[in-house]
Every structure is written in C-alpha cells, then in structure tokens.
Amino acid sequence: MSPSRKGVFGMGKKLYVGNLDVSVGDAELEQLFGSLGRIESAKVVMDHDTNQSKGYGIVEMSTEVEALAAISTLSGQEHAGKALKVSEARPKPKALAVGEPVVKSGARIPQW
User: Fold this and answer.
1) Is 48 exposed, middle or buried (CB count within 10 Å of its CB: 0-12, 13-18, 19+)?
2) Does domain 11-88 have CATH number 3.30.70.330?
3) pTM assigned to the model
4) What are the extents of the domains in the chain?
C-alpha cells in the first residue's frame, strides 16, 4: 500500500474478510461490519464463471481506527458456522508482462 493510503497506524482502511460462507452476500457483509463504524464499501468476491461466492470479501471502513476495531472484534468470530479471518487487505500482485522473467526469492535469471 502506498504511503499516501496509510495513516497514523501504518495500515489502510481496506480489510480482507476470509472464510465466508457461500450464502453471505454484500448486504450481510456490510451489516456484519456496520456496528463497528461507517462502511465505505463491502463486496463479496464472486466467481465469474459460476456467479457463486469465492468465500471472501473486501470491506473498506471510513477510518483506520474503525478498521483496527473490526479486525480485533471479528477475526476468529463465528459467522454462519465459520470462523472469520479478518486482516488488512493487501494490494493485488502486479501482473507480469508477456516475456517478463519470473524471479523467485534467491533464484537467478539465466543469461543466455
């Protein structure tokens, strides 16, 4: 996350919410976090082919304080029979360009 998106606590306001039951939708996700602060957005990630939940979502809180409260309150809590995993959302990894070499930690790129 870029420094401009981080504030006093060094974390962002977007949260990853994992281990969601497939029956949980956007409105239910927003309601679950609503008691902990103002919600900017709440979205369950759906599979494009089947249109079913992938079992996780992204919630953006209004402030970092609210995001921290949500993490400490809801992480590990049971919802719809499953223990939630709530943490700071990480940015998507950059997609590789065609022909760009894949470098794994400690791996060397061959020089032909």
Assistant:
1) exposed
2) yes
3) 0.74
4) 11-88
